[in-house]
Amino acid sequence: MTKQFMFDALRQAIDEEMEKDDSVFVLGEDIGHYGGSYKVTKDLHVKYGDLRILDTPIAENSFTGMAIGAAMTGLRPIVEGMNMSFLLLAFNQISNNAGMLRYTSGGNFAIPLVIRGPGGVGRQLGAEHSQRLEAYFQAIPGLKIVACSTPYNAKGLLKSAIRDNNPVILFEHVLLYNLQENLPDSEYFVPLDKAEIVREGNHVTIITYSRMRYHVIQAVDTLVKEGYDPEIIDLISLKPLDIETIVNSVVKTHNVIIVEECMKTGGIGAELIAQINDTCFDQLDAPIIRLSSQDIPTPYNGNLEKATVIHPYQIIDSVRRLCILKV
Fold it and tell me: Is 129 a catalytic residue?
């Protein structure tokens, strides 16, 4: 076991897969000699050269389209978005090409493409650099979407995504790159379609993902001292949702709280509520509580920015209200 930062874990995943497979390459803005905005590709150009660690112009639509074309020919491109918000410029390529070509070609083309990079609400990055695009892309057929939350699952998910024959979007949170964790020295993979049960419990199922995992854990530390017994599920897979794991938990706890950084309107939480109601509504003792970010552009002002996202005290209050009869 070796202690690693999350950005190093991601770098190791890329390095290992590039070493094993000559068809894997990375492209994006400032990923070569500069090493990427968060140093995920630091020094890889020295080992693999400028044609496999490919610096691109500031033209997301062009280089994302180029990556999709490369995937159609049998290569395995990894697109790094300097900030995931910028990939809105490539929305057409991702939706109309990456997501659809396998289907519209009658299966003649596979699109083994990974799109990854930083997103989420940082610390005063402004509205255009604080967007959460997971809900934007969730509605697109043909995509797989995952969100890493620890160095361990970041590395395992990226390795699995690189080897998958479908387009995969990996969301990394801008505030989690400096997390540290002991990682196995041997090779491992994390499945792209499974949630993680972070903590088992009986009183309430708290479903979350990405950075909010740590707000939930902080809240649960307080709740356990008060006698509550929450179960924590980190979704990891945002598309497809691991509804089997979620249903098994709901059958046990009969209460659900969803904690997300995504916006409330049309967010991941909204889809979760729909699927839970479709599959196990009769198991619920109370309506599902959804704790989501405010439906406004993220303010630059630090205090206003904090007010737009969910904090541990809100999770604690919600559990107390929902589970008052169970303690």
Answer: yes
> Could you tell me what percent of the chain has a pLDDT over 90?
94
Contact criterion met (CB below 8 Å) for 246 and 195: yes
pLDDT tens figures, 144-200: 999 999 999 999 999 999 999 999 999 999 999 999 999 999 999 999 999 999 999
Determine whether 172 is an active site residue: no
Residue in 45, 80, 129, 231 annotated catalytic: 129
Gap between the Cα atoms of 67 and 113, Å rounded: 7
Which residue from 126, 242, 112, 234 is spatially nearest to 174, judged by alpha carbons?
Answer: 126
Distance CA 161, CA 144 (A): 9
pLDDT of 202 over the 60 cut: yes
Edge-to-edge strands, sheet with 204-208: 196-199, 230-234, 204-208, 256-263, 289-293
**Consecutive H or E run containing 304:** helix 302-308
Active-site position among 17, 29, 60, 231: 60
Mean of pLDDT values over 57-70: 96
How far is the CA of 46 from the CAs of 31, 52, 79, 118, 285, in angstroms? 12, 10, 19, 23, 58
Average pLDDT over all residues of the chain? 95
> What's the pTM?
0.95
Please give the full DSSP string across 264-291, using - where no structure is assigned. Answer: STTSHHHHHHHHHHHHHGGG-SSPPEEE
AA identity, residue 11 = R
What domains can be seen in the chain, in order of their start residue? 2-183 (3.40.50.970), 196-326 (3.40.50.920)
Please choose, from the candidates 172, 181, 168, 157, the residue with its C-alpha nearest in 3D space to the C-alpha of residue 122: 172
Q: What are phi and psi of 173, to 5 degrees?
A: -95, 135
Cis before residue 167, ω within 30 degrees of 0? no
pLDDT at 325 over 60: no
Residue 204 three-state SS: strand
